[in-house]
User: Fold these one by one.
Assistant:
Number 1:
Amino acid sequence: MRALYRHTRYSSRFSVLGVKAMSYTAEDERLINEAYEKLLASCKKVCKNDDDWSFIKRAYFLAKEAHSGVRRRSGEPYLLHPIAVAQIVVDEIGLGVKSIVAALLHDVVEDTDYTVEDMDHIFGAKIASMVDGLTKMSGVFNADTSEQAEYFRKVLLTLSDDVRVILIKIADRLHNMRTLQYMPLNKQIKITGETIYLFAPLAYRLGLYPIKSELEDLCMKYRFPEEYERISGLLAKSAEKRQEYIDRFCKPIIEVLDRNNIKYEISGRVKSVYSVWTKMQRKQIPFEEIYDLFAIRIVFQTLPFPSEKTQCWQIYSNITDIYAPKQDRLRDWISMPKANGYEALHSTVMGPDGHWVEVQIRTQRMEEIAERGFAAHWKYKKATLSQNDDAFDTWLKKIRDALNSPTESAVEFLDNFKLSLYTSEITVFTPKGEQRQLPNGATALDFAYDIHTKVGDHAIGAKINHKIEPITKALKWGDQIEIITADSAKPKAEWLEIVTTTKAKQKITAFLKREQQNNIENGITLFENKLAEHNVTMSGRVLRKAMQAYGCKYKDEFYSHIGAGIISLDNIEKVLKSSSTSKLLKFWHLRQEDDDLDDDIPENEKPSTDDSFTIASCCNPLPGDNVVGFRDPITNKIVVHKATCDELNRLASQYGKNIIKDKIKWSQHKATAYLSTIEMRGIDRMGILSDITHIVSDDFSINMREIHLRSHDGIFEGKLSLYVQSADALYALMDKFRQIKGLESVKRIENNEIE
């Protein structure tokens, strides 16, 4: 049997990782002891007996021995990290003794000689299972597999057994984000990418709203530090004026609540920096035009009777006696809680000076669930001895079903899981009145797959509120749906663009994969036979040339299209004889940040420029945009994305090692034009089109590729596709457009196509 505490081989292990190992100083020991004493103070609320205290202390001393002398990149003792994670677990998430123990041990198996079997022997099977779920995967992966995605799949699969593992992992990620300043730039992009793509939505889905907001703010702080500091400063600058308004708004509400002998707390909650910034980005408006910077929250102590729900509505009635409500902004999440367990009554009312103000009404129980999420949800469920499934239970069952039948590709698995983290939901009904929860934006086809896979596979239409509609029809809250099926119908690739739910995408993908495999086998045969007809020997060069000529990125896609008849090989001889396949002309010049420092380096060893770069079609960055490089694992070229690109976050969450370490910058680009598209909306009037074209042609001498405007009910909407030399030129043009009378909204859109 291994000794309980060991001091062997740890230094060499961590030197490989680049983490400095040395003996702890007296100051280090003081810091460790302070952190440990603080943790023990927090543990008082969960430890019920001496066995609980002993369990935590044994875990602490084993972790201290295992990580002895090891330091983080910041230089602080490594042990402070697992202690901090355990502190978050107990204080900010509200978990119990086993979770604290697992948090203290979460890096022991990954970073030392201890094994999962050791954990089982010392702490029992449950702790061993939790630590195993928290341990990163090791070993060799297939070349076409994302190690990050495989790791996430393993962690997420623990949802099928113990949700606490995910909660501890979120705590681990939160502490790593709080200390991210010590990581290099490429690691910061990788970590923030996977955080914003997966961990923040997952925290929200598990009801951890404060953690979700902090993760988002920290991502913004490191990815867009200038914008973060600017908005933080603006929020701080307006704080005094905002508080004066909150006090004025709350004064009559306080008077009526006091008069009714209600015990309560009332506060103004300010939007997070990230949520302000995303709203500015989404609506392309300045900070000064965001009017919902805060919400008023009322948390009250309930009386034995009447019901919680009735008491919430009584307070709502008191408030709307003072301020007029906006009827379409009433949100009753008490009668039908969100899937993450969130309950509250939200209303938007007209406050002083003509400002709309959101008011949130909650009981103390609802407040704890809103702040602590899953842990508080189960505590109250256990307290009431309820055996009935609620919205959270239903969502968790769906997730477990999806996780227990994952797709072959870890990347697909991760993308599909991400879809289950939708944050806005609607309730719809079957013909018999059964309620179904779907994401906002779900279609009739999503509903069909939610009923049963066979119903989805054979769907051809739907009756929505007794009216026949296509399966692409987006559903609204309260719709009643009946699916129309036909035996001859089958899933199509276009359906993947229609559906929004994990289940629907997985089922459609599974069907298409089975069909695609048949097409691939047929396509290989057809392609090889066609090459034989022209006496051409099959080789990697020939295949790559043909794939590029027919616009295919992957060989399976190429063969599948041949087998399905999408690609005809009638002109294959011409393709093979051409000296080179067509290339897009590159009118930009991009360089890595230190290019101009490498004049003495041989040409073949310098960082590659121009031909090695490809502009990402998903976001179409312009010269002057803040950009990040990602090395494509297939072509080995650097694909340049806008730093704000959602697709970049997805790639960073799955292929973080491919993020280019050095900054990519525009440098002395030629005076050549780049295609960009502007979306406009405003009040229609005579001559507005003339004003727009006058600014484009006369004021800026810019060439237009295409313009599409349409007017309805006095409102016009349109898109303008044009050629500009830089992002600065585009934004100058947009600023000029905003001065046109009647033009309400001017936005740059990343997709340059006009429908």
Number 2:
Amino acid sequence: MFYYSNSDKKRKTKPVTDSVKDFLKDLIDYAVCLYIMLMLAVFPFYFTDGYIHIGSDKAEFFCRLSVNAGRVLVLPVLLYLLISLGILMRDNGKQCSLKKMMRETISLTDIFAFVYCVALFISYGFSDYRENALWGAERWYMGLVPQLMLMMTYFLVSKFWKPRRWVLFLVIPVSAAVFALGCLNRFGIYPIDMKYLDPSFISTIGNINWYCGYAVSVVFIGIALFWLEPEMKGWKKVVLAAYSVLGFVTLMIQGSESGLVALAVVLLVMFCCSVHDKERMLLFWQDMVLLWGGCLAVYAVRLFAPKEYIMNYMDGFGAKLTYGVFPIIMTIVSVAGLAWVEKGKIKGFYSEKLFGVLAKTVVVGCVTAVLAVLLLATVNTAKPGSLGRLSEYKLFTFSQSWGSNRGATWSAGWRCFINQDGLHKLVGVGPDCMAEYLYSGEDADLIADVNEKFGTARLTNAHNEWLTVLVNIGVLGLIGFGGMIVCGIRELLKKGRENPVACACGFCLLAYTVNNIFSFQQSMSVGTIFVIFGIGEAFLQNDCK
């Protein structure tokens, strides 16, 4: 029989501070988990009176939920950090140093996020429109407090949440329901009676641009996981395949071309990342079969559906991708690509070099095409009609109508920035205050041009997220925001190659960023993507799969 002395018992007893720290950590984790669940599972369905003020409804939901979460968590988080610092000082020299802990827990993405937080406060402090800058423009609410809530979301989820795959997978059934409603709405079927029904509003999200922003922020979780996990079999693979088809279809027919650009960029990156891995190349071609098979299904519906169920809203490009010979050709190409890779797998060979050359060719071709369009548009704008028949296409003439009026919105945003003095170029006019500056009348020519183009509609942003950040938060804000997004995408896609969940979140962030070259921040999409951004970082930092 062994006996322990009192001193032995004391050594085996866990210090009170460590127990309190563990309790606080669990408390914060469960609270953040609840917040994530409400954002991912309830937020997309929240509205109060149909489409009448659905944008404001969702903005208010996000603000109320986030502010209340901040109030509940501020004290536990501060106590946790103070106790952690005390324990670190107690153990300093034995286990780790403060400098080492900082290196291990703070990433470059975190540093840029902190820079953006500082820029927000500075911009607000120097704004001439502080009353509006606090919450932001009416009905949009992307001012100082909502922006800080986005940063709070990122840090709380990435640093304090214990990763759980099932929480992220809430996105799949929830967004599938949203997408199914969106697809039905496109054919004039409305299972939910929404006031102010109009083809420019869709599903439970609202405006087409808002819907597209939400869709690209979540759909690639399912699509990318289908591609990233070759060992997945049985019902799980069937579910992800069905979800991918639904996601592809809703992106094709929702009506915003920016979503198609985001889809094209993500698929190109997926293809390039598949070159050195035959299993992922096989799954990439399976994704392509699902994409074009979905487009063929839409084609069949458009051909044979009763007249009362014709598509009620179509952009030119999306219409071509889901009708006529094009989806048939692309389905054949996708099936042939899949069969070729599958045959190689069976016979034990894989032409990595060929796919590498093909990937480089496609990338160079895409970059060349973009540069050629810009060059031709510049030439044709300077000398109208110089391109012959090509001159008839709006794409090749820079004007206010270029790119669905992006010419007008981008021009207005850039002129807002250029008109500022040196200080406000650095710190901006104030969070979400572009409209306040624009309609203040300080630039009479600018406001005259905007009113001529948009009439009574109020232009609250430049329809380009980064340009809008430049106007509102200045160069300092753009450095912080842009650095955070770029580093986040790079970390999640590069370091997350062996971490499917983190990588899938990286594709969502990439798609959101590409889409918002032509779109804007609004609470539904930006609130969702920062939750997913934080989830990806949490999985990456905790090395969970």
Number 3:
Amino acid sequence: MQDKPEKVKEIYKNREISWLQFNERVLEEAEDESTPLLERLRFLSIVLNNSDEFYRVRVGMLCDQMLVDENIRDDKAGRTISEQLKDIWSATRKLRTRFDAAYAQVMTAMENFGVCQIRKSKRVAERDKSFLKNLFEQQIAPLLAPFIIEKNHPFPFFENGKLVVGVTLKTKNGKDCVGLIPLPDSIERMICLPSEACRFILAEDLILMFADRVFHKFDVQEKAIFSIIRNADINEDEGLYDYDTDLSDTMSKIIDRRKLMGPVKIKYNGDNCPKLISYLSRVLYLKKRQIFQYGTPLDFRFLSELENRLSENSLTSLCFPPHVPAPNPNINENGNIIEQIIRRDILLAYPFEDVSAMLALMRQAAADNRVKSIHITLYRVAHHSKIVSALIDAANNGKQVTCVIELRARFDEENNIDWAGQLREAGCKVLYGMPGYKTHAKLLLIELADGKNICLIGTGNFNEITAHVYTDISLLTAHRGIVADVQKVFAAIESGTFVQQADHLLVAPLCMKNRLIEMIDGQIEKKLRGKPAEIVMKLNSLTEKEMIDKLIEASGAGVKVRLIVRGICCVIPGIPGVTENIAVRSIVGRFLEHSRIYAFGVGRRKQYFISSADLMTRNMTGRVEVAVPIYDPACQAKLRRILNSNFADNGKARILQADGRYKKGTLSRWRKPRNSQQELSGIEER
């Protein structure tokens, strides 16, 4: 590959552009007129949140690198930082235009259901003007803390995402200045007007409407709502153990530091306000291409309030039909679940099957006198976690409970710090993993006094909330070899070392990547000997260059490589003589595709694994990750059903083309539309 640099751009996709393509696929769900209207708004909310987090993390990182050397190139597509940033800004503007159009279309359609957002004073009926004026003066204005920026009053600090109303002002003496009104946290965001219908105005729009009353001594010339998106690219491991013995103290300091990071983007909503935007650009040291105008609200956290205002009849028409997870047919929740697992392996598939089986297992383990100890890894847990409550109950019942809590789970640090404190107070042993390596593996180990131990190994977090909206898989097993390997992983974490060899599990950072390469090589060797060979992988992201190159090598040898990659995919398939045997598809739908499945070979000898790890550098070499083989034939059949349904999807699947673009699966009169998530959950089309 290195001898043919001219082919680099054809084979590899830049990571950042691939991520923007993923967010475009989410936007397509919001543009899809077959999607219920409130769900389309939720997809728009996801698009906006994704974009803000992308700028905070990835663009923040690129901006930091730009200060060091703007000619640094990414290791796959070979693009410089400045080239990447230009592409990002350009793509962001194109998506924003579509984003605005989708929001306008949805809100216009929502008016048929009595939902009407008031954005500007000209849309306010005469009977409502006095209501809004009185509400503003009596309830809103007393809570406001406006700033006037003059020579002796510098620009104040606003935290990430804070909504602010900005105005340009002219004094009686003809001098120009700027006024700022941050939206108070205590104000209800969604303000409903007196009406049988759901007519509302957002608090920031109401403040904008009456900004001249706040600055009544000035001539208000320009008005806009803006929000500053700040860099969050902090190296959590830098100097991590130099000054604190307690990682929770360190992470608290990092969280505080993140709040103070520099701006990377400004979003604003307002018409004809060049002076204000020029001022913000100058005072925040941003280029104008880092400032984006929206025709929509700047955050969508009001959606939950909107949903609460709607009638049951409206919600039926505006939302997806209710999803009721099925019970796992192999688990009797009223019986002894531990004994059921000892008798046979069980595969749980969320959200198609109910997470209640896992919660019942946790409750039973907490109360069962045979259970002597519980070990678990926690990465992202629910705010009111029933799982953590069960662990606390187990500790109160005298069991040894060890919790490996990853405090460095980005943007969940504060929640995890709180849970760590509660678990420690209950008598649980709390570990934070190792310096420089996040513990991302999803492991539960339940040890019994009689030595009949069981474990759970999954693709997703121990989180009963996300289990209703993320597609994830968990293996429950008493397989002695697998259990022994899980014990080895926990022992390594407790001793501050890594697993160097495991008999059944693939364990990062030392013995996962090499084992995966060996299995890919095994398929290459089979193909070269004229035997059937195939590699199937279902992932969230594919960015690790050595793994990509190995898949390209397999393709070159004639091995069929079929990939389901929801998000970032840095290999371009279908290039003759290079990646012609690689096929890539992405599925974006009602549920977030989150499970990772690896499969090697064909027929009865096909090897199946489920894993917490994507094929990314951070997963392969910078985290503690685990992949577990699936030995039970019934569990393997379940994985085949999931994969076959994903590959047959022609409704929500997008196929990555050789030109680097994604295309929706084609429908014809000979093939009925197939939505894999509906098939697997039993949800029928309306």
Number 4:
Amino acid sequence: MKKRVALEDFYRYQYLSAVRISPDGSRAVFVRTEANVAENGYSSYLYLFDWETGALTQLTDTGRDKAPLWLDNGTLLFQSTRSEELKKRTENGEPWSYFYTMPASGGEAAEAFRIPAKVFALWPLADGRFLVKCERNNNYPGLHQAEGPEKEEALRLQKENEDYLVADELPFRHDGEGFYNNLRKSLALFDAAAGKLEFISAPLADVEHVALEGDQVLYSAHEIVKERRMRYPTGLYTYSLKTGAAAQLLEETTYRIRTCGYIGGQVVFAGSDLKRYGNQENPWFYVLRDGKPQVFAQNEESAMNSVGSDCRYGGGLTYKVRQDGIYFLSTMGGDAVVKRAGMDGRVETLSRRDGTVDCFDVGPRGIACVAMKNYRLQELYTICGEKEEKRSSFNDWVFEELAISLPQRVEFENCGCAMEGWVILPAGFDPAKTYPGILDIHGGHKCAYGAVYYHEMQLWASQGYFVFFCNPRGSDGGGNTFAEIIGRYGEIDYDDIMKFTDTVLERYPQLDKNRLGVTGGSYGGYMTNWIIGHTDRFRCAASQRSIASYISMFGTSDTGYSFPMYGFTTSLWEDPGRYWSHSPLKYADRVKTPTLFLHSENDYRCPISEGMQMFTALKFHGVEARLCMFKGECHELSRAGKPLHRARRLKEITDWMDGHLKGE
């Protein structure tokens, strides 16, 4: 007999990422990650997939290996800290990256080189050097090249200034990365034989996307200048590996670029001009002709996987430019698929709508991808034309051992707009009984829910709850128009969520309307705060990494003022009333709902002060409230936080719901 899902089951889930296909297409390498409870962290291993035989081979066993790429058809390069010494140096914040090579056929890994910087991506060049996207510290510009007494003095100054944080630009910190003032993601050339790193992008340029064609480097970037206000547009730049000549192809005035590359020798990019739908506008596809962008494929739908789950870890390719077009992920309703935009203007869907593709690579034989399909957890899949095959079984045990309750799709309409949601029935559902329920609201706002495995939802169902969730207006997956709710936060989205709740209660009479809880994180936390200030229909709430006031968020979030200005099309000083009227804190004196607030100490997206404000407001007005704060965690606590912290977070929410919904 299958057992019900338990909180600790997520310790056994396997997470896949970073799939890369060999140049000849015969094999693919990827990363498998699992929770390491003993160290309260994660262990990652490299695996090889043989396209011809379907065989899977584990290549490494240290638990510290990541970011693999192919040097050639038989050799892999990857990043690791294989010795205890290197591990400690990394944990202590030393900005070095360590790389190893090993035969793809297996065998011992050998250290290849060390780069004196934090490396985000790396590309091997024909002359034996490497193109590197890495962190550049403009506070200590010569540190990566210094030697002897000069280096010792630079390190002494850096150590001396560790206790002081000085900001003179925006943004000055990033969620998950910490204090970021005067740091940049830069492009550099690394000579492994000499151990020398030479930066080739401008000191103030923050590099985003990179492509190679022959001896030409193409990249998108935007300069963070102290005198300039924050903005989204990025420019396009080239650098000649042969001559060292640099040039700007596209000024940083118009486009927010999502990827770039070469097709038939022409520069192409995916980008948004932000004129119709603001900074979350879905990109179109452009080719640069005579220095001017020309659209070759229009696209009103999503160009990312924004379908949420708490069962992913690690990243991978979400765009790839090839000679037959730009491949990208796209959210369609509650699914995320692979699409291709061709130079003939056609945008084709290349994978089935039966879950989410999380990352992919494209090679001579087809597409290899990590996906969550048919409500299963992540596995490796291949796509060859219309043929899709599941190639791994790391998480098959979940459905073999656990009693899983599958989501039931619910269609509804509000204000003439068709929407969808899902309901997960409580484990052991008896239609003659009544049950409590939990409304779960996604983040974003431009994210989405789908029929994709969520551990927290399955846990609550196993504990005897209805779990219901939907995609109101503002969500991704329905095109630009559906996602655009500028200036209407807490209005049409709130109406949609309440209409969905009414629909679920009508269709499932076993759901007790007097025993409902509500929860959500980020934008879902904002909506939870909003809901408790506008209705008493929920007996309790759990607000996670939330927003309380757009006035305070204006100057404290790592998004800076750009997010609220996009949302309200005006500044705080031009229309403070608008900012305040859309802030849940304004309505906190109306709240009667007992509410749990959860926030991470190092959350720079929705700073911890937001949760504190709502908690304080409820306590001030005599409402039952509890605040749980997590040290050392950021905005990604529920998805990538330390395993024991993730477990405590979920226990806090579950205990809160149990205490308020399961009593009389």
